[in-house]
Amino acid sequence: MIVSKQKPFTEILATLEPVSRIFLIGCAKCATVCKSGGEEQLWQMQEDLTAAGKEVTGSLVIDEACHMLRVQRDLRSKGEQVKNAEALLVLACGAGVQSVSTASDRLTVAGLDTLFLGNIRRFGQFEQRCSLCGHCILNETGGICPVTICPKGLLNGPCGGMDEGKCEVNPEAECAWCQIYQRLHDRGEQAPLSAANPPRDFSRNLRPGSLKLEK
Amino acid sequence: MTSILRRKLDAGNFVVTAEVCPPKGCDCGEFREKSHALGKIVDAVNVTDNQGANVRISPLAPAALLLRDGIEPIMQLTCRDRNRLALQSELMAAAALGVTNVLALTGDHISFGDHPGGKPVFDLESVQLLQTIAALNSGRDLSGARLHGSTSFYAGAAAAPAAEPFEITLPKLAKKVAAGAGFFQTQAIFSPDCLARFAEAVHPLGAKVIVGILLLKSAGMARYVTNRVPGLKVPVDLIHELEDADHPLDTGVAIARRLVAAARPYCDGVHIMALGKEELIPDILAGLARDDDHD
Ligand code: SF4
Ligand code: SF4
Known about the structure:
Chain B: Pathway: One-carbon metabolism; tetrahydrofolate interconversion; Amino-acid biosynthesis; L-methionine biosynthesis via de novo pathway. Chain B: Keywords: FAD, Flavoprotein, Oxidoreductase. Chain B: Belongs to the methylenetetrahydrofolate reductase family. Chain B: This is Methylenetetrahydrofolate reductase. The complex is a heterodimer of chains A (about 220) and B (about 300). Chain A has helices spanning about 10-15, 30-35, 40-50, 70-75, 80-85, 95-105, 145-150, 175-185; strands at about 1-5, 20-25, 55-60, 85-90, 105-110, 110-120, 125-130. Chain A has a four-stranded parallel sheet with strand order 3-2-4-5, sandwiched between helices. A three-stranded antiparallel sheet of chain A has the order 1-6-7, with no helix packed on it. Chain A is built from eight helices and seven strands. With about 300 residues, chain B is an alpha/beta fold. Chain B is about 40% helix and about 15% strand. In chain B, strand 6 (about 185-190), helix 7 (about 190-200) and strand 7 (about 210-215) form a beta-alpha-beta unit. In chain B, helix 8 runs antiparallel to helix 9. The interface of A and B includes residues 157, 164 and 194 of A. Bound molecules: iron/sulfur cluster (2 copies). One iron/sulfur cluster (SF4) binds near residues 154, 161, 167 and 175 of chain A.
């Protein structure tokens, strides 16, 4: 899921400076799990904005804010409240914010910083395991992604900074290549790593991505 | 143009290299003075590339200036700051100016340096950079297109003999040699045992080994290096030796001289890191039997 975090309230307030009536939008999926844009955070935001002298005209938690048609439909259902607002403050990932800005002519304000595609370690603890690179090599690396877990994204083994199996960039973390070799070794595999991985084909990850499923 | 370093190593000569950090700025006067003094002592001078991820002049210009002064450079090149287009064009430029030795490095992470907010590139890494150099040497670029004049670099790579677990660093060293590394310059080594293990593992690969020797200037510096530099650990007995010394710098030179002697049977040369005390390099090398034509 997409991991996000609320921007500092002062920053949000500064962006909302020119407006006084605001409609709040959250997302029932990722932003709810991250406690950055669920029901609870919307209430809190409403309180804080009111205390700061703003008027909140209403609020809405969209089932998936990244779903553009749904956002359009749900906003329509809140017609008056949205119309009364000068700005829509969106507590959803950047994709959700853009569903809203596409569906409405109101000033749309992003209330979150969108961080990464995260795995959930346990409640409230998220870790990036995949950076959506467009060409998955997990089959060759024992199911551990060096593109993401190695801060340098190295494809051919550990860098010279690896020390006692730890990463030069974060000595708390295990070097991705130590994890990979250990995993392959435990499985009695090694062969796939003896040949050098060629330079990656970054054209497979050109932005903006798009995908249209065949009927 | 062919590499003199390569000629010497191929002939079985024991070589000595040292490194000089290019200036932060465009005034290369001090750099040239330092290198000039060094050039009389060593076979080749490494020109570092934004060392420690700190911005400095590109190694290309200082390397070319060394050539003008009659000193053979080993131009270091990191993947941290350039994508595959920039790396190839930098290499072609270096070849055009007469640079013959390149040390292919991945590079320290950008978070260590003076621009931690910058975007690290790592489009390629050391193994792939070596493949790139091999391609240019064969007269083609990475996409296979033919070049107008091919390069003829003698390519080298870095190695960290003391890194643990050692076994997992080996496949990468093998890949580096397979990708064209003719020599390794290692990180500083303090233990003959570790050196023996490294030499035993690397010699069958067929690359020359130039062992890193760091001049320990004081016990404080030895402790700093141990605590702060990944992969470097000064053994406690050496730290004690420096602590007990009346003249720690002399003791440091003596230790370095011992390490050079211990390294001699296992390697093809030494890479001396004297960190500003380059004038002591002759003392470190004193007693070393060198069979080359140094003048
Ligand atoms: S290689 Fe890594 S970043 Fe790429 S798709 Fe697979 S898990 Fe994701
Ligand atoms: S120590 Fe390992 S994980 Fe960290 S940057 Fe180097 S290779 Fe990557």
